[in-house]
Design brief:
It is a single chain. The protein is mainly alpha-helical and 237 residues long. It folds into 2 domains: 172 residues, no CATH class; 47 residues, no CATH class. The chain is 52% helix and 5% strand. It has 11 helices and 3 strands, in the order αβαββααααααααα. It has a 3-stranded mixed sheet. Helix 2 links the parallel strand 1 and strand 2. It is elongated.
Length: 237
């Protein structure tokens, strides 16, 4: 991938080149992934394999508000995080989530993807002012209380347009005019893979089973489950 691997996978997922993105990093949803596999438990004592698969369109908070890509982006911008600007000091994820209910994140996404230059600057100035007003007054009634300190700490340099565009317009293969190739389905050639590991990585035969158990089996099982799910959907149709 020419940029972030997670962005590449999210873009491929949004265009239906792959079924889902398997990652513990929720940034995949900010990058536009449609479906995120976050947890796979292969040691369940009942012998089942529960897969925590998160379809973005079905994400809802405890009060049944939809959690959109805009809300997730707003949460990332306010709370900060890895590879991000610090965010707004003292702003918890719960506060960002409540602001998302009022549509601040969705309006930001729409503006950044449709405006530029002075028009975008004017939007951000007004958008920032409205967020601060909401934090100070709870005008919408969607916050659990007012957050004057958080409002005071929002500066005119927040949020960074570069960071927003990193999420909404990430560098991927498409940025360089390349297209994704549809994945071809074929059975895993485990024997060939074993020989490759022995030859290039000097992994002894006796150690390959452990390596495969830790690195390979999980992916094979998830792929098999996805294929079974596809067949079931086709049968219903």
């Amino acid at each position: 991938a020419p940029g972030e691997a997670l962005a590449e996978l999210a873009t491929m997922n949004s265009l239906s080149y792959i079924d889902a993105v398997m990652s513990e990093d929720s940034d995949a949803l900010c990058y536009g992934a449609e479906k995120l596999v976050r947890r796979v438990d292969f040691t369940n004592h009942e012998g089942t394999i529960p897969v925590d698969c998160v379809p973005v369109r079905e994400l809802r908070d405890a009060n049944d508000f939809s959690i959109t890509r805009g809300t997730l982006l707003l949460m990332a911008l306010l709370s900060g995080g890895e590879n991000l600007e610090p965010g707004v000091e003292g702003c918890e994820l719960s506060v960002a989530l409540m602001l998302g209910r009022e549509g601040f994140g969705d309006r930001l996404v729409n503006a950044v993807t449709s405006l530029s230059g002075i028009k975008l600057e004017r939007f951000l100035a007004n958008w920032r002012k409205r967020i601060k007003y909401e934090l100070e007054t709870n005008n919408s009634g969607l916050l659990d209380k007012v957050y004057n300190t958080v409002a005071f700490r929002i500066t005119n340099s927040w949020p960074s347009v570069d960071v927003i565009k990193m999420y909404l317009q990430p560098i991927t293969s498409l940025s360089f005019g390349k297209s994704f190739q549809p994945a071809s389905r074929s059975s895993a050639q485990l024997g060939e893979l074993a020989r490759l590991c022995e030859f290039h990585f000097s992994i002894p035969t006796i150690g390959l089973l452990k390596v495969f158990e830790e690195r390979i089996w999980h992916g094979l099982v998830v792929d098999a489950l996805l294929q079974c799910n596809k067949k079931a959907i086709c049968a219903e149709e």
